[in-house]
Amino acid sequence: MTAENRHSADDLATAFTVLSEFLGSANLTTQLAQAESELVQTTADDSGGVAAQYGFTQELLDATLLIRSKVGRLNDVVHATTIALALPHILEPDERVVNRPSLGAGNDPTRPYDLETDRRIAEFKVAQWKGADTMRKRGVVADLVHLTLDDSGRRAQLYIVGEVPSRFLACSTSTVTWMLGR
User: Fold this and answer.
1) Which of 42, 54, 113, 132 suits 10 as a labelling partner, its CA being 20 to 30 A distant?
2) How far is it, in rounded angstroms, from Cα 42 to Cα 132?
3) Do residues 94 and 175 both lie within one domain?
4) SS3 for 61?
């Protein structure tokens, strides 16, 4: 490891510490709501004091930007790892993957599904929903419709993670038209 890489690793470790301490100091949603309230009617002279009171510092911004630049594709890593780890559990004896799995983000027309085998097509949605996830809801419905419209004769499967998306799919009263509309 070069001195430059080591310095970057040290910077990243420090950045994680700064961000972790900030996130561990209070409930972020509560902290943001309180800061928003405190910022009402502030001027340039006193808004900086409110920012400092709630820990919004240049060090925090620098640390967060550094972390985001290094781990901005964390969702891709989660998606890829989920699919790779699921394969030994879901593939049946002698079932074969017939097209390159779509492990990362993006729409490649040569890979319309996350997984294609000689027996199934599958999409994986592993994001952690918070409850009001309109874009995630629309995405999971779009994938479900896409899987349903496949005419290859292969079994269509949608893998989701968590109670919130499961409840949404089982209980939603929203129309597919609304879900697919933008």
Assistant:
1) 54
2) 31
3) yes
4) helix
